[in-house]
Amino acid sequence: MRCVAAITLVLVAPLLSASSEWKVRVDGVGPLKIGMSAAELQSALGQIVAPVDEEESDCFYVVDANRKGLSYMITLRGLARVDVDGPGIETVRGAAVGVSVERIRLLYGTALEEQPHFYGGAPNLYLTYWSRDRRYAVRFETADGKVARYYAGGTPEVEFVEGCL
Prior knowledge:
With about 160 residues, the protein is mostly beta strands. The chain is about 10% helix and about 35% strand. The strands form 2 sheets. Strands 1-5-6-7-11-10-9-8 form an 8-stranded mixed sheet. Strands 2-3-4 form a 3-stranded antiparallel sheet, with no helix packed on it. The longest helix has 8 residues, at about 40-45.
């Protein structure tokens, strides 16, 4: 089994149109779609600097300098996951960091799957909303009854507990 290292890089990017809606979907955010190649991402966002070390290039993060709290997991398959670690970035249904667990349940209904958090256990949860074909999902991590962070992407990356590790 190949060991995958994680590295975080800051994305140096021109601002895209202010009218662009940067809402998170199960399959991406704004104009970005899970599965886009690194070249397509670079075209959409500007300069992406990949790690020099080959082991680190298997999976790494790019932090969006223009959108606080937003980062992108890049793997050998391209854009694999979009992570949201701060307030102000919503899903297409209106969920965001800081929203209550009850609000997430109302927004996603019976399609939402609930599991105890890997580290926190009850009452901390993973709340996961899958696409119909289960190729993509949005997963909310909760702490103290609110969304602490969330991410959207393809399988298996959306289920990784520690990102690239």
